[in-house]
Predict the 3D structure of the following.
Amino acid sequence: MTCLFCEIIDRNIPADIVFEDDEILAFRDVDPRAPVHILIIPKKHISGLSEANESDRELMGRICIAASRIAGQEGIDQSGYRLVVNSGPDAGQAVDHLHFHLLGGRPLGWPPG
Ligand code: DGP
């Protein structure tokens, strides 16, 4: 089965890419919920956070560091930002490829949802 985000990684579907290295891709969300809304994904296909395992530990850390770096790039590191993973139906996970939402550029309500 084809995966939408794997297609973006393979450049079969266009995206506004803001960061890339050999393990990670980050691109602007097509339906932004904040002035800055970027999706950060592992290039390795992992269906969701529940499917990540011990061998992904370093990759997960690298994604968090990339998020911080991208927040700086986007100029929201001082104003603040949120890094969110939706996991499963109750959280509204719509794409079955692990992705971290980086949101910022406005005050973000708490609790979410
Ligand atoms: P989630 O609900 O956590 O699974 O978030 C999926 C996000 O993916 C949602 O905010 C919209 C975004 N999205 C869906 N399709 C595309 C696409 O083709 N391109 C981009 N850039 N984002 C997409």
Observations:
- Residues 4, 13, 15, 27-31, 39, 86, 92-95 surround 2'-deoxyguanosine-5'-monophosphate (CB under 6 Å).
- The longest helix spans residues 57-74.
- Strands lie at 17-20, 24-28, 36-42, 81-84, 100-104.
- The radius of gyration is 14 Å.
